[in-house]
Amino acid sequence: MEIRCASCQNEYKRMSTKELRENFLIDTLFGWGQINAVYWETDRAVVASAVPGASALVLETAPVLASDFFCERRELGVLNLGAPGNVMVDGVGYDLDHLDCLYIGRGARTISFGNGHPKKAAKFLLISYPAHCTYPTTFVKHSEANTLKLGSPETANQRTIFQYIHEGGIKSCQLVMGFTRMDTGSVWNTMPPHTHTRRSEVYVYFDIPDHAAAFHFMGPGDETRHLLVHDGQAVLSPVWSIHSGCGSQAYSFVWAMGGENQQFTDMDGIAIRDLR
Fold this sequence. Notes:
Blueprint lengths: L1 E3 L4 H5 L3 H8 E2 L7 E7 L4 E7 L5 E2 L15 E7 L4 E5 L2 E5 L4 E4 L6 E5 L8 E7 L7 E3 L5 E5 L8 E7 L10 E7 L5 E2 L4 E2 L3 E8 L7 E6 L5 E5 L4 E4 L4 E6 L4 E8 L8 E2 L7
Parallel strand pairs: 1-3
Antiparallel strand pairs: 2-21, 3-4, 4-11, 5-10, 6-9, 6-11, 7-8, 7-10, 9-12, 13-14, 14-15, 15-23, 16-22, 17-24, 18-21, 18-23, 19-20, 19-22
C-alpha cells in the first residue's frame, strides 16, 4: 500500500507538472491479477483496485492501518467498472455486474474478489474511509441507483449522475459514492466549479478510449492547474481544490467523498469569471 502525504496550497503553488502528478494523480491503479492501494493522509482515505485473474484476490490489511483486518475500523465502497465479478464478505457472496455497487460495513473480516467469466476481468474500484460505527453491508444494482439529470447541450455539460452511497441511499458513516456519465457531445463536468472544505474527494475517470483524454482542473479558484488523465486513472482532490474536468470527448468518472458531512449539495461555488 503506497502512502501519499497531504499537500498544502503553498507547496502546490511551487509544483512542476511532474510533482503535481506524483502528489495528486494515481496513474497505475488497475493491474491484472493484483490489488493496488494508495493510503492518502487527507481524511485517511484509501483508494484501491482489485482485478482478479484466474484466482480470487483477498483484501489484506497493511501496516499503515495498524489493524488485524482491513475493515476493522473502516467502511468500504466497491464499484465494478469491468466485466461481471463476485465479492465474498465473511462467507456471503455478491454478484456484481458492470457498474453495480456494494457497500461493506465496519467489522467485515474476510473480503475477496473473483471473476464471473474466465476470460473477462472484473475491475473493482475500492474507496475506503474510517468508520465510527457499523452499517450493514448493502448491494445495489446499477439500475437501482438514484439518478439526476443535469446540464445542457448549450454548455457542453449534459450528464447523468448515479448516486449509490448517499443520504437517501446506502447508509454509511461518512463515505459518499457514485459516478457521472457525460452525454455524447458534452465534455465539461463541475463547471462552474466548487470546493467543499468539509470533505475531500477522489475522482476516477473511465470510459475514455485510448486515443482520448480528460483534463482535470485543480487548485484554488484563483490559481488553477491541470492534470492530463487517461482511462482508469484517479485524482486525489484536497479540500482546498476545485475538481472540474474537460474531455476530448464524452467520458465517465466515479466520485467519492469522505469527511464532515454527506450532503451532496454542500459546495462552496466559484464563478467562472473569478477563475484564474
